[in-house]
Specification:
7-stranded antiparallel β-sheet; two-stranded antiparallel ribbon; alpha+beta; 265 residues
């Protein structure tokens, strides 16, 4: 089975993900579990508000102080965010509060929660145990990783960025590029240098905060415009560093993201 690290995508924070049928194998699973556990309580407060209005106010805050639905959603969203930060902000299981809020907003618009409440609770507990028992990550071979990146840099048309990220453009897209504060909609497959797929959106677009991505993925995506696609090669220094992610990404590992930038908001 493929083990995945999210937003995601692979998020800069470490997030194990899980498969639809097996909790520990679904993409972005920690955040999905927290969102699934909170959703029933939150949804009960939106019975009289249309899903699109509830979701917009919940995730972005009220943009019109006269719109009662937006205002109510914004207040509930802020309260939920504060609670998530308080309960999970100092843990090491990979919870990204803003990502949880975004997932719940999707549920408010009709997306089916990944977990039942009981499954969510069990999965979160499992991740706490895992974080306490995580051992030393295997180390990648520096020579192999360096050769992997060097080969990418030698690809005709490759762009080598100041942080040593290599972008091999497939399609450049429009002139609109992501910036800090953006939400990006992406489809991707993430691989280790040996070809192992450790994360994938399974060919479906997901929305995630641009600022929550690994530094190398951010710099690579900034070379793309909306609708563009590329292979982005990321050295460990701009990815998961010398520690990697226990059981998934070796310390010092270079990564490859085959990614499409569907939309920017």
């Amino acid at each position: 089975m493929i083990q995945r690290i999210g937003v995601a995508i692979a998020l800069w924070v470490w997030v194990l993900s899980a498969h639809a049928q097996i909790a520990h194998e679904r993409i972005d699973s920690v955040n999905e579990a927290v969102a699934s556990s909170l959703y029933p309580m939150i949804a009960s407060q939106f019975s009289s508000i249309p899903g699109d209005v509830a979701a917009k106010g919940f995730i972005a805050g009220a943009t019109d102080s006269t719109a009662v639905g937006y205002a109510k959603a914004a207040i509930i969203g802020d309260s939920a965010l504060d609670w998530i930060n308080k309960e999970f902000g100092r843990t090491e299981i990979g919870v990204v509060p803003q990502r949880v809020i975004a997932i719940i907003a999707g549920y408010l618009q009709g997306k089916t929660p990944v977990f039942t409440e009981n499954e969510a609770g069990a999965y979160i507990s499992e991740q706490f145990v895992r974080s306490l028992n995580s051992g030393i990550t295997d180390k990648a071979d520096a020579g192999v990783e360096g050769a992997f990146l060097a080969k990418a840099a030698d690809t005709p048309g490759a762009i080598v960025l100041p942080d040593s990220v290599v972008v091999v453009m497939v399609k450049s897209g429009t002139k609109q590029t992501p910036t800090s504060g953006s939400t990006v909609s992406v489809v991707y497959e993430a691989l280790l240098s040996n070809g192992t797929v450790f994360d994938t959106t399974e060919n479906a677009a997901i929305n995630i905060s641009f600022d929550s991505l690994a530094p190398g993925l951010r710099s690579g995506l900034m070379q793309l415009g909306k609708g563009g696609s590329a292979d982005i090669y990321i050295p460990a220094s701009a990815g998961y560093g010398s520690e990697g992610y226990p059981g998934v990404i070796p310390g010092g590992a270079a990564l490859l993201y085959k990614i499409r930038l569907i939309d920017i908001k």
